[in-house]
Design goal:
227 residues; alpha+beta; 3-stranded antiparallel β-sheet; 7 strands; globular; disordered N terminus; disordered C terminus; binds iron/sulfur cluster
Length: 227
């Protein structure tokens, strides 16, 4: 999400493809981010789409440095989550209130949700953020282009797309608590479970998807009413 290092003048959009990096490396990185092992390393280059798209940002009770930087009246209890979990809302323009002068004013202490958000997941899964009513994120995500070191890496990307399509078209494949998953969450799940679908022609089963979710121990993203 937004950093204050590279500010692009308002209204300026990068044109042409943006290098999303090596696909296999990205998969390893995003899986680490989902587990909480590392932040997502996204070349935002001044893009603030995810900070200006009417998103609720989840903050967990252990994020004490973040909570200390945000006025209490901007936070409210996160629905369906344990006590102490809160959401940071947005203003009447859909902007995060911590975004100032087109940069995150608490960047060093930004929420974990922001540290791990990576719009390349839409490009990876072949899904559109428009389905979540996030057209600005969709515009940015469509610019990403992955590179592939091997044919096996291309097959891996095909498998992620196959998983995403299967999860979107067959919600019965999802665990019960993922039934209300947003498109973002479906894209993340596709990245997590795609190993079970290599080669990409393999039909997914609910058991295979459940096994992959267990193997990768993801944060239960579908429990979060955000993104
Ligand atoms: S706290 Fe707000 S401004 Fe900062 S990165 Fe997150 S969404 Fe963007």
């Amino acid at each position: 999400m937004s950093d204050d290092a590279h500010i692009v003048p308002e209204g300026t959009d990068p044109s042409g493809p943006l290098p999303a990096g090596d696909f296999a490396s990205w998969v390893a990185e995003i899986r680490g981010a989902i587990r909480g092992d590392n932040p997502a390393d996204v070349a935002c280059d001044g893009c603030t789409a995810c900070c200006t798209s009417s998103q609720f940002v989840h903050i967990a009770p252990d994020e004490t440095a973040t909570l200390a930087r945000i006025p209490a009246d901007l936070l409210f209890p996160a629905p369906r989550m344990p006590r102490g979990h809160v959401l940071l809302g947005y203003d009447d323009r859909g902007h995060c209130p911590m975004l100032r002068d087109r940069a995150c004013s608490i960047y060093d202490d930004r929420p974990r949700t922001c540290r791990t958000y990576d719009c390349r997941v839409f490009a990876a899964a072949g899904l559109s953020a428009v389905a979540d009513d996030k057209p600005d994120i969709d515009r940015r995500a469509r610019l990403w282009e992955f590179s592939y070191a091997t044919d096996a890496d291309r097959a891996r990307h095909d498998a992620v797309r196959t998983a995403a399509t299967a999860l979107r078209e067959h919600p019965d494949l999802l665990p019960d608590d993922a039934a209300r998953a947003t498109t973002t969450q479906l894209a993340v799940l596709a990245v997590l479970v795609h190993d079970a679908l290599i080669p990409a022609s393999t039909a997914p089963t609910a058991a295979a998807i459940a096994a992959e979710l267990t193997r990768h121990r993801p944060t239960p993203l579908w429990q979060r009413p955000l993104r």
